[in-house]
Every structure is written in C-alpha cells, then in structure tokens.
Automatic annotation (TrEMBL), chains A, B:
<protein>
    <submittedName>
        <fullName>DinB family protein</fullName>
    </submittedName>
</protein>
<dbReference type="Pfam" id="PF12867">
    <property type="entry name" value="DinB_2"/>
</dbReference>
<dbReference type="InterPro" id="IPR034660">
    <property type="entry name" value="DinB/YfiT-like"/>
</dbReference>
<feature type="domain" description="DinB-like">
    <location>
        <begin position="14"/>
        <end position="152"/>
    </location>
</feature>
<dbReference type="InterPro" id="IPR024775">
    <property type="entry name" value="DinB-like"/>
</dbReference>
Amino acid sequence: MSDGFRLDEARALLLRTPRVLEAWLGGLPDAWLHVTEGASTWSPFDVLGHLIHGEETDWIPRARIILGDAADKTFPPFDRTAMFEASRGKSADVLLERFATLRAESVRTLDGWTLGDADLARRGVHPAFGEVTLRQLLATWTAHDLGHLAQVARAMAKRYREEVGPWRAYLSLMDWKD
Amino acid sequence: MSDGFRLDEARALLLRTPRVLEAWLGGLPDAWLHVTEGASTWSPFDVLGHLIHGEETDWIPRARIILGDAADKTFPPFDRTAMFEASRGKSADVLLERFATLRAESVRTLDGWTLGDADLARRGVHPAFGEVTLRQLLATWTAHDLGHLAQVARAMAKRYREEVGPWRAYLSLMDWKD
C-alpha cells in the first residue's frame, strides 16, 4: 500500500475528465479533432473512442474481477485499438456524450462499493504484469486519463510545429513522443 | 507564411482553454492543485498564474507592438516566473475566473482587429530570437496553451508514479520532462 493514493482524490479527477474533454473538444473544428502525430498515432477523436472502450471493457470490469469470487482473477487483455472500428461514422459530440454517460456510471459503481483499505489491497492478475492490486488499478485509471489528456494536447500542438517559427525551442511538447 | 495556420482554428482553441481549466481544476482537491514535479517545477496552480501573466503582458501586448507604428518593434522580455508573487494568497477559483475574464478580453481584441494575411505577415522583434511574424506569435500562443495543459496533466500524473505499480511501463507521461 502507498500513502500517495486516496480514493476521494482519484475520484475527483475521474469525475472531471468527461467535462474537460467536452469543454475542449465540443464543437471544435475537424482540423483539431482529427489531427494525428503521423502514421499509427491517435487523434483527439481516436482518444475519445479509446476512453469509451476503457469504460466498457477495462477499468470497472477489471475491478469487478478483483472484487469477485472467481478462482481465476486473470483480466482479459484490453484491445487498445478497438475504437477505430467502434467510432467509425460517429461524431465527436456523440462520443463525448457516450463517454460522459459511461464515466458517470463507472463512478456510481465505484461509489456503491464503498471501498476500504482492505478492498484496495485485493489482487487480480494482469495478463502481462501478473499480480496487481485494486489500488494500482484505480491509480492507473486516473493516470491513464491524464496521459490521454496530455496526448490530446500534444497531437494538436504538433500541428503548429512549423507555424510557431523560432518559438519551437520553448515548446518541449512538440518533441515529446510516447 | 504557412498553410497550416488558420486564425479561426487557433481562436477556437484559445477560447476554450479557460473552460478546460475550469472543468479540470475548479473545486479540485489541493493535493492536485499544488502538486509539482519536484524542485523548480510548476504546479497546476502555478500554471494558472503563468497563463494570467501571459494575457496581461505577453500575447496581445506583443501583437499590439507588431501592429503598431513604433519604429522599434522589440518585445519587452516576458517574466516566466512573475506568477509566484502575483498568485500568492489567491485561490485557484479566483485565478480561474481572472484567466477566463482576461482571455475573453484578449479574444475580443483579436476579433476586433479582423486580421488578414497581410497583417499576419507583419513582424516584431523577439528579444532572443529576432524577427518573428504575427502569425508565428498567434500560433505560439495557441501551442503554449496546449503545452501548459499537457504540463498540468503531467504534474498530476507523476503524483501516482509509484501508485500505478507495474502499469508505469504503459504510462509514458510519467517520464516526460521539459
């Protein structure tokens, strides 16, 4: 267990992510929504679909496995690119609304569990990493949101890599890669 | 001139930044607002103050110099750390409101100029870089917002560097530095 993780603090960020994305991407020109950092990189629109897929198949479903009674607590692998198919033909506004709905449900589920320290220490099995705790899963869910918010900023910023001229030297985001 | 910059698109992002920060930081626990990445790095609260100082002394004031009639178009240097003093004793909510007010004024000023391509090609003199165009200044203003949004995400994510356990391997944001 780590002293740095508090469920109420993680929850405060998890609740806000859909609102942040709505404020940022709602009604934004397509040039920003669909910009990528090059081949095999994601646009803000792709990120939205990925976050939706995470709500549907990753975070709460994995927490359920940890908290459940099954003998085998191995998580199914998470498909990081499922959103390319699932988002096809949808608008960003539809995805924003879907994500907001799903995240609100996820947080309601989390609240309903009234997790204590003993619960947070329970374990599941990650298909690549082996044993992980519920606390680590919830910290990762939160950090994962933040990682993708930063990725949205980065994909958009790189669009102006040349346009900023000599200021590029001050904009380290332009050179950050995964 | 570059084909990648369109004023209406830049404006769409500039307008949204205060709303994004309000959705993200409004009412957020202090543990997130004041987290830094270590000595001499900025918290989300510090970033807010820095953005306010930019509205007051950097972006529109520099554009005014470019568009003005003075023979010497050298920008005064921008004080990147002025906010440490200016933000002292203020709440994040006060800073969020101040930034929203200032940014709205900045965008109104920008709109009032009805800038065309000839205006965007006009030049000023950056104290370190030499000649820069208004187009570069406006592209940098936009990218600068995005850089600091990514920085906010990064400062908060690093708080969970240890808490995420083995998932850290998937969270490249944790290892991104300026």
